[in-house]
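Would you mind giving me a polypeptide sequence along with per-residue structure tokens?
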Amino acid sequence: MMKENNYSNPKGKNQHKIRSNGEIQKIIDNSPRHWTKKDFRGEGKNNKKKKLTRPETERSGLKFYYSGNKKPLHKVYKHSTTESISKFEKKIISEQELRNRSKAKRLRDLMSINQKRKMQKDRYKKILKDDFLLEEKRRRDREYRERQKKLLGK
């Protein structure tokens, strides 16, 4: 006797049902507020039992109440430039942008001199290959020299 359609499970029994965003949001709302996405997947520090799958936690439209520890602003200021701090205080850049710049500067500060030189050489090679990037670099260099002349009063 032949199987119909050659399916091993034609009736679809024991198949996983996809939960809607509303159902997932109810699970999130009924859990402690300090849980992160990893905690819902059973990978975090606060919970070892799997409540949601990775694709479910990565869906858009869900509101997780806690996403991890943020560094206090005074520690962010420690690794920021004065220019970035003044732009943040004037509300030209967002807090997230200030944090990103601070993180990048902190990583550069931790690099050895040889690592910095290698990174700069790689960046310069990339700029030389692209005409647009090369023109932008020349424009920034001109503006920098003009600012330095004004500061020195020449």
